[in-house]
Amino acid sequence: MLKQHLQFKLSQKLSPQQIQLMKLIQLPTQAFEQRLKQELEENPALESGKEDTERTGDDFEDSFDSGENEVIDTEDINIDEYLSDDEIPDYRTRSTNYGEEEEKQVPYAAGISFNQYLLNQLNTEYLDDEQWQIAEFLVGSVDESGYIRRPIPDLMDDLAFTQNVFTDQATIMEVLKKVHQLDPPGVGARSLDECLLLQLERKQATPAVERARQILEKSFDHFTKKHYKKLMQRHNISEAELKEAIQEIEKLNPKPGGAYSGNNKLVEHVVPDFTIRIVDGELELSLNSRNAPELHVSREYSNMLAGYKSSREKSKSQKDAVMFIKQKLDAAKWFIDAIKQRQQTLYTTMNAIMNYQEAYFLTGDERNLKPMILKDIADQIGMDVSTVSRVANSKYVDTPYGTKLIKDFFSESVKNVEGEDVSTREIKKILETVIREEDKRKPLTDDKLAGILKEKGYPIARRTVAKYREQMDIPVARLRKEI
Known about the structure:
22 helices; four-stranded mixed beta sheet
């Protein structure tokens, strides 16, 4: 049985303009500039730079508002008066006799891929057709770090199924040895120890190099776990000799492909969105001027809309043209307002963060960072937590102590022995200092680190010390050991 009934529901939804504003707030400076450039290209009613001073802002607001609120009678429009074409041929205005697309072409440098770099080296090797197909397949299997991560039997199967090359493991190993001779040294290795051994083979033979090779070949597991006493006993060497061998190994590159592949990637430069300076003992905040562009609505387009009443001719094309102009003017005015609101939101949020962490910005000592969460700032400025998050997660600030990611100033709180709330960043800084000053021959375990922190007035558990240590990418005590 079907029933019909009315249901009233009250809900809050973000308008498309609000969603766009949130996206604008989230953009860092460089991405914002790209978005601004895109908007200027897509909306002819939006222009950059200062507006003509002959027309005051009040005059513009009056004319625009009247056009926005008034119902447009498009039957009384002669749009041809406002969209007249120049009688000068287009080609006469060009600086050259080339087409528009040809004028914009700019030469650029393009590098070659890491795999192509290896293939180019193989051209100097004598290989028959089958060996060349195998070599090309092996080089194609080299990852960005310079390793071939797949077992030889799997590579043999793939050669048969994908390249129609039926071969055996011995032939693949023979070709792989030729790949191992390519630069950078260690490329094509199937494991870390093989990679390091390939590099040692190209070094001048010395007693230290020979001992390093013996350690990697016969005691790689003990070496990775830093069991130095077992290494000295097993290879019958002194501590000084072991230290020399380890120094040779530490000179090697565990990721031989990284040095080349990184050169072919675009480098992203960080552009600070804010700048904090200390002037006469006081903090001074400024927003990057690239975040505050000068924009105005096209005077020509606003005149087109304002002058429609003077026309007496009527046509369908005039109606469509005026609606297009009205839409572009609305979009331009909204975008200018959104940019201003973005500037205000960014400045207000960062100013609150600066004042909250005043002690840190005046000294640069991370131990002066106060516990601060997103809600603390959101409550101060009367905005939503998500808005503060958008500002903090993607923006940088230039301080007297370097360029910092804003979200790094946020941290949870931990109570010390005196019952005061201290930042977890403060505890991490102290933990880092303790580990840096420890005796590397006998590194401190997490239990001992927890005891030292407790003595300093920070009663935290061993598992918490381990969590902080992992967050700072500091290895366990055994792997910090040195001789």
